[in-house]
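Q: Structure tokens for this one, please.
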Amino acid sequence: MREVLTYPIGAAEIREELLFVLEYFSARGHASCEVLFGWAWGNDYYPTDEWAYRTFDLGSVLREVERAEQAGWGKLAQDDLYLKFPPLELEFRLCNDSDLHISFDQASDVVESFYARWKARGFSPPNGPSVRMARLVSAFASTENHALAATCRSPLRYVSLEDEIS
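A: Here is the predicted structure, written as tokens:
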């Protein structure tokens, strides 16, 4: 599994990218996506400790996010939100660290498109991948915290927007 991630950006940009992702896939014929409310709003969003992806019509994803925010369960750019678009083998994470991720096994037109968009919008670190990022990857890969372990995959290669995708 590989991942493209951005430098931390503002909450307004995270919300804009959520809307763009939904519009992008709608324009390509997707009617729905799978959504997981991750750390930490998943603690309140789900009635049990079993967090699971739920399928939403693309037009209702933002409303559901806003409903969760209004309930006080979490907030975009402060809590993790995951999106999948089956049958595509990729996953978006709008991260609690106020950055964006796409996880994938194989580079594709979709990944290339978002890579180019995010780079053009200036979402990449000004001096390439940070030491902090390398430390986080190392720490998360060896964590025994099950909430963190659920969001980390092994083996995982982080690719910043300064690296090549393919």
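A few notes: The chain has six helices and seven strands. Confidence is low (pLDDT under 50) at residues 129-158.
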